[in-house]
Amino acid sequence: MDEKETILNDYAFLVSETDEKGIIRFANRDFCDIAEYSLEELIGKPHNVVRHKDMPKTAFKDLWETVKKGEIWTGYVKNATKNGGYYWVFATVYPFSSCDGTNGYLSCRRKASKDEIKKISKLYEVWIIEETK
Predict the structure, then answer these.
(1) What is the pTM for the complete model shown?
(2) Which of 8, 63, 80, 94 could pair with 12 in a Cys bridge, judged by C-beta atoms 3.0 to 4.6 Å apart?
(3) Strands 73-80 and 103-111: what pairing?
């Protein structure tokens, strides 16, 4: 059975906040709606609850290495929905200090274009093959 793709509209802006270990502390309505989770289902869960099996480990290794150095990471991510579908986003992940004084990460995501998805899908396929060698 083919997975159902959810295509973001041009105005969708998915935002989530995690602690330093990647545990979700906040998710906006766009993120909840696209990922098909309620806010209550996401709070306290690891952000990788939306990780899709087609994502190469290399991409997340790069993300974590970048943000743990205090730098901003950008990249394309294929995420899984609660009901077994998927959606593509262009993500920007920022290290930051929350208003309560704790450190964490803020992720802001927008729609990825068909051309962007086509290019990055080919690259990710190569990375996954390399990871399995």
Answers:
(1) 0.93
(2) 8
(3) unpaired
